[in-house]
Amino acid sequence: MERKKYSKRYCKYTEAKIEFIDYKDIDMLKHSLSERYKIMPRRLTGNTKKWQERVEVAIKRARHMALIPYVIDHKKVVENPFKL
């Protein structure tokens, strides 16, 4: 079988030279969340290990502050739960 060739993914945070990920900046965190608002893995987002750990901490803090939902109902998937 022939393997699929994927393009090289780059860390968006390293390229932008961001020094800190703020948990209140939801637009930046949405890049690392799936449509069900789960944290996407590094192999899909292209984040480096350092930035993936920082993103995870920021998302967990945002969930604790109720800025991002923990669980989304599977039967009622909302396109954007931030605009309820």
From TrEMBL:
Question: Which is a GO BP term held by this UniProt record?
Answer: translation
Which UniProt keywords are given for this protein, alphabetically ordered?
A: Ribonucleoprotein, Ribosomal protein, RNA-binding, rRNA-binding
According to its UniProt entry, the function of this protein is described as: Binds as a heterodimer with protein bS6 to the central domain of the 16S rRNA, where it helps stabilize the platform of the 30S subunit.
Superkingdom field: Bacteria
* UniProt key word Methyltransferase: no
Name of the protein = Small ribosomal subunit protein bS18
Query: Where is it found, in Gene Ontology cellular component terms?
Result: cytosolic small ribosomal subunit
Its gene is rpsR
Give the record's family classification. Belongs to the bacterial ribosomal protein bS18 family.
Please give the Gene3D superfamilies that the UniProt record associates with this protein.
Answer: Ribosomal protein S18 (4.10.640.10)
PROSITE patterns in the record, alphabetically?
RIBOSOMAL_S18 (PS00057)
